[in-house]
Amino acid sequence: MQFRKDINGLRAIAVIAVVLFHFNPTWMPGGFAGVDVFFVISGFLMTGIIFRGLDQNNFSILKFYVARANRIIPALALLCFVLLILGWFYLSPLDYRTLGYHIASSVGFVSNIVYWMESGYFNATSIEKWLLHTWSLSAEWQFYIIYPLVLVTLKKWLSLNVLKHTILVGTILGFMFCVVATYKWPDPSYFLLPTRAWEMMIGGVAYLYPFRIQESRKGIVEWTGLVLIIGSYFFISKYNAWPGYYALFPVLGSFLVIQAQRNNSIITNNLIFQKLGAWSYSIYLWHWPLVVTIYYFSLDENFIYLGLALSVLFGFLSNKYVEKIRFTNNISSFTGLFRCKPVYIMIFVGILGSLTYSQSGFLFRLSDDLQLKNINAMTAVGDWGYPSANLKVGEHKVRLIKGSGDKNILFIGASHIEHTYPYSEALNTDYNIYYVTTGGCFIAKSYVNPTQNCANIQDYESLFSEIKFEKVVTSIYTLKNYLSSDEDIRKKQIALRVSEYDEFLRYAKAQSKEVFIVLGEPVGPEFDPMLSVRKDLKDYVDVSTVRETYEIHYEALTNLKELEGITVIDPVNYLCTDICKVMDDNFNFYYKDKTHMRPWYAQKALGYLDIVFDL
3-state DSSP call for residue 413? Predict the structure, then answer.
């Protein structure tokens, strides 16, 4: 296939958006959609390779895989190897251990699954993951494995023409599934192939069903596509559920630019975009670790501009000296894979990453005290005592702790209700204790979490209609989440949430005998085991600093009209003196992260909940 300068320029438009978004999201709030543009391009090129081979009856799945390995693995492996070397000198064992795990998953092309299981793409901790961006490479590689297998299998029974129609129908069905799945399962939908495959398949549709456009009208088609792509970069943000139906804008835009086939376009075929397009893969690889470096070492914002320059420089060098290495592609049997050098490179780097993980980041680099602190931090991270739902009440997912009596207590809210579960479970009271929660959500109905469906707690009326509760325990911890940066809008949002929370309190008081509000627990970076060992933070936080964190919550309390008859519990009064300790004398961390208690500490420290259980 003739080299398409318009597609190469489209790569530049994609990588520019992703890089700008990652270095400073305010520059291009929807720049992450550049990945979706890459997916369309990839689908177009891969479909062309496969169908030309099928049409000529000479397509080799093995050669296809080897060609993809030759293209993707060397530059990725080099980045991982460099990170391993630098990490030895500059990362804490806890971070180095995590890096090793992520390197193994990245070169094994399963990192999208790993990152989905860890947290959401826009989660605050994502900025700490040196290879987060490789999720898209893993999704593509999984597509490369499955797509030709499916097409070659179907070709045994279907003609090429029917196969084309099948891809078209599959693309439409894939988009429909993506829209539904993004709403129901936002985190897996972002990372996993089933909701991303249609984006690559629509690239295939562009190859299989090329538009016949008069030369004079190609510019209109191209500009329509560019407007859709660039518009999505500015009018979509991380607060929109993604990919979902919003992804249609950059994906359809990419489809139209490809269909326009304007190799002489001043937009895509200019010197700068042609160079950036050629270097785009390596720029994409190197830019994200530079973003993480700025965050990890708390560098000044001015380093953003240095990071941008280095992303392009490293991308150029990687493209020239790594991507252009010509590995053999003349492999016709599985035994020929022994001549595929990128496979050895992948295995070698994967083993290094696995060793780094299995050896706990090579703790021997530290003194005995620091080794103990790091070991305890590794144990603390991810130590969570909230089980999966074991009951369904209507549409509500519930964790039920069965008591010996017939009276019920409801704990409803976000993750700061969830971490009280180990304490309640250990009490063995007469009460049946119902936990109805969704992390990152707030009970006010105007509150929207872009990555979570909050109906489990916001549709509280249907829950109360099913079960009679003696007591209700809730929290206002998430009140301040997902607020606008505009001060006027922010004030209106808070006022509306406070008003809606009042409505909930009024309803809860009418439906039960007692209502309790649990305010926020002590929080801060010092509580985070990972940050503590990374930056050698203090083993306490000043109580005044903790109080400042909750200024919005304390002010909201003064504006609630339904507080009469409600018991307000302030954990800070119980857990702190003039300071709030974050660990004991043996470096046993109380929290698993900045804000969430570990089960053993919850069981030990949450005596302030005894009033709820009449203890």
Answer: strand
